[in-house]
Amino acid sequence: MADENVTLTQDITENDYPMQHAGEEIDEILIRAGKIHYGTVEHKMTGANALMRIPLGLTFTPKQVIATLRQTDIPTPYKTFCTHVSGSGKSYYLNVCMGANNGSTVNVPTGTYYVDYIAIE
């Protein structure tokens, strides 16, 4: 068994996988990762309204945006929210209205909301 370990160690060398190639792959991964932006936007809704538009505050024009709505308090009773990302250029918003169980005429309650987003250049 000791001979097998020696053989395995001898088979894995820098010559089998050049360091330059590995460095190029790492550079490419970092370039791609630099195009992925994420963050959290805090929004305080002080007056109830049928539609809440939360600006994401992006500084670039994204190709893709994923956003979720979050609250830190526990609503009683639980509520269903409808969310939709809209925008163009650098101006993107998470639009929020009440879900089907409350109807379109019901206002989004006041409170503090958070939008967690991922945006890709």
Structure notes:
By secondary structure, the chain is an alpha+beta fold. The protein has a domain at 37-120: Immunoglobulin-like. It contains two helices and six strands; from the N terminus they run ααββββββ. The chain has helices at 2-11, 19-33, and strands at residues 36-45, 52-55, 64-70, 81-88, 91-98, 111-120. The chain has a three-stranded antiparallel sheet with strand order 1-6-3, with no helix packed on it. Strands 2-5-4 form a three-stranded antiparallel sheet, with no helix packed on it. The longest helix has 15 residues, at 19-33. It is elongated.
Topology, element by element:
Layout: H1 2-11, H2 19-33, E1 36-45, E2 52-55, E3 64-70, E4 81-88, E5 91-98, E6 111-120
Antiparallel strand pairs: 1-6, 2-5, 3-6, 4-5
The low-confidence parts are: none
Order of helices and strands: HHEEEEEE
By CATH, the architecture of the domain at 37-120 is named: Sandwich
Overall geometry comes to: elongated
- Per DSSP, the total helix count is 2
Q: What's the total count of β strands?
A: 6
Q: Please indicate the percent range of residues in DSSP E strands (runs of 2 or more).
A: 35-45%
Major sheet attributes: 3 strands, antiparallel
Q: How is the largest sheet built, in terms of strand order?
A: 1-6-3
The chain-level mean pLDDT equals: 82
